[in-house]
Write a structure and sequence with these properties.
The chain is of the alpha/beta class. 33% of the residues lie in helices and 25% in strands. It has one domain: Rossmann fold, CATH 3.40.50. The relative contact order is 0.14.
């Protein structure tokens, strides 16, 4: 078991200060950088555990609070086990914060996180990897398109919406992406229908983006999130295999 060092820190951004969690192997070496982009429920213990697991594979992992404009994490009072069917008011709290993450704000925030990672002695020189969950997968695509010189790989799990009718839909931005993508969609997910998935793949193919997409049959939207009712352990294990494989082949020199 790799010994880890994790701690909280603050990262200056153009709009304030984002609280974040940083974790890396407990040694004197620099490791490839990974930026974890949260789901809609925010920075919380289960996401820190996810970041720890990635770091234990030899990465320096930064997990910011994407909702920092609304307060420090936890921004929303969450139960230890999140079942939106029992607590529908949670969505009423988080949806306005999700909508606040406009492309301009994403650019400002991701730029600040990437600058911080580039300056950190704990992050090895070179491109970083992004992994996003639910809304985070959408933001990861946008970020990779905005910062193609800094992002070497993107993974997205039960992400959405990746295809919309809006002019800033993620699938319309992919032509700038230079890194490799892996996306795992939930088989039971109205956010990404088979038609959406086909359209997203078509956009990646047209842009010449190296990518692979899969559908995890039977899995629900949120299948990687261990503190939610959507969690599926088998799909979660598969997610780590694909995620770490992607980062091993793209981020290590």
């Amino acid at each position: 078991m790799t010994a880890l060092q994790g701690h909280s820190l603050d990262i200056p951004t153009p709009d304030g200060v984002a609280d974040a969690y940083l974790v890396h192997p407990d040694d004197d070496s620099a490791h490839p950088g990974v930026l974890v982009i949260q789901d809609g429920f925010g920075l919380r213990p289960s996401l820190r555990t996810l970041a720890d697991r990635i770091a234990s594979h030899g990465f320096t992992v930064l997990l910011p609070n994407a909702f920092y404009r609304h307060g420090r994490a936890p921004v929303v009072d969450l139960p230890d086990f999140i079942d939106p069917g029992e607590r529908p008011e949670i969505f009423q709290q988080v949806f306005p914060m999700i909508r606040d993450l406009t492309p301009d704000r994403v650019r400002a925030d991701i730029g600040a996180y990437l600058d911080w990672m580039a300056a950190s002695p704990k992050v090895a020189p070179g491109k970083v990897g992004l992994t996003g969950y639910c809304m985070g997968a959408r933001l990861a695509v946008i970020a990779a398109a905005m910062f193609p010189d800094s992002v070497g790989a993107v993974a997205g799990f039960h992400g959405g919406p990746l295809v919309t009718d809006a002019p800033d839909s993620p699938h319309l931005m992919v032509e700038n992406i230079t890194g490799e993508l892996y996306f795992a969609h939930a088989g039971e997910d109205h956010h990404m229908t088979p038609e959406h998935i086909a359209q997203f793949d078509k956009a990646l193919e047209a842009a010449g983006v190296r990518h692979r997409t899969e559908v995890y049959d039977g899995a629900q939207h949120g299948f990687t999130q261990a503190d939610t009712a959507a969690y599926d352990a088998q799909s979660d294990d598969r997610h780590y295999v694909e995620l770490l494989g992607l980062f091993d082949r793209t981020l290590r020199s």
